[in-house]
Amino acid sequence: MTRLWPDLMPSNSNAFFAAAPPEAPGILAIDLDQLAANWQALRDYVAPAQCAAVVKADAYGLGADRVIPALAAAGCRVFFVATLAEARQARTLAPQGNILVLDGITPGASEAYTQINAWPVLSSLAEIKEWGQEGVQRGSPAPCALHIDTGLNRLGMSEPEIRALAGDTHLLGRLDIRLVMSHLACADEPDHPKNAKQHDVMRQLRPLLPNAATSLAASDGIMLGPNFHFDLVRPGYALYGGQASKGRPAPVKPVVQSFARVLQVRDLAPGATVGYSASYSAEQPRRIAVIAAGYADGFFRHLSAAAGETGGFVAFSGKRAPVVGRVSMDLITTDVTAFNDPSVVRGDWAEILGPTITLEEMGAAAGTIGYETLTRLGRRFHRVYLERDGDI
């Protein structure tokens, strides 16, 4: 197996790059071994709590068809998705796993969950009543999870709804509640007072509901400490190597690297402009590399840089080259004037994400977060999945 970290040299002689089809504009490499190692590190970190995996949005854009089996092989048994369609896919990929659907049930969809043995995460009394009726029709209480709103004010039952449910023993008798969960609003800010407040609300409301596993922490919540782990944690972004917390880093390493081809290198005379709207003008002679990546590939348009501005960047052999001009759908232009030994030439590979540029850095430069960076990676790049005893 060819390892990506930390000594990958962007050169056509490297077997990793040689494996890419000649027509590929870029390479997206996903290290499934590191993904599995990340889950196992988080599992060990939160023990004795159980560690699930959030694989919604096509496993954060990395390919659920490869990610879910890798996590199942590593020992994961609980998977969270967002939609029923994602649950159907997850069921085929993890036949023995517990599949929980965060969006709950839409009207009339209850039977479909029963057919694939997926547990809806119920967030309202209306959903609970419909799911309870499904239990009546199947002749036994149907497994599910309940979502308490502790202060995020998105999905979740309010305190009055929880108290109403707690007083309705007839309705509760129709449910097989396996998990009671909530979600933190400010977990990436360890000192934010809302974390403690939501934790306290969970502690106050939890005794009103039937005995079941409890879950509060996702990726960043895990790093708030054992008091937030309860019985089960739900990492998503951290599994894929993300480090969003402003406090203690998660015990994970990057999973993704992305590189794009240099299509052309050109010299600019003073006064020459680059790209749409002529937003960048060279004040002195510059050398520009035109690279086969754009916003269709997840390289945000907000990474553009007009004259005098700082935008995004790529890297060659660990040295950064700034974006100049507008990011377009298929192309970016970067200043490689400083690359003289060796110089950047047509056919070289520019690092988009990897040892030099993290998900968080790219997201921050674009005015967003690493989560969006990860999920926006396009499908045009040649995808390489690396795993034990496998080939690139």
From TrEMBL:
Enzyme class of the recorded protein, top EC level: isomerase
EC number: 5.1.1.1
Residue positions where N6-(pyridoxal phosphate)lysine is found in the record: K56
Domain of life: Bacteria
Transmembrane stretches, start-end: none
Keyword Isomerase: yes
Swiss-Prot/TrEMBL cofactor(s): pyridoxal 5'-phosphate
Binding positions for substrate per the UniProt entry: R154, M329
SMART domains, A to Z: Ala_racemase_C
Reactions listed under catalytic activity: L-alanine = D-alanine
Keywords assigned: Isomerase, Pyridoxal phosphate
Entry keyword annotation includes Aminoacyl-tRNA synthetase: no
Residue positions of the active site: K56 (proton acceptor), Y276 (proton acceptor)
Domain Alanine racemase C-terminal residue range list: 255-386
InterPro entries, alphabetized: Ala_racemase, Ala_racemase/Decarboxylase_C, Ala_racemase_C, Ala_racemase_N, Ala_racemase_pyridoxalP-BS, PLP-binding_barrel
Pathway annotation from the record: Amino-acid biosynthesis; D-alanine biosynthesis; D-alanine from L-alanine: step 1/1
Protein family per UniProt: Belongs to the alanine racemase family.
Described function: Catalyzes the interconversion of L-alanine and D-alanine. May also act on other amino acids.
Protein name in UniProt: Alanine racemase
Organism name: Filomicrobium insigne
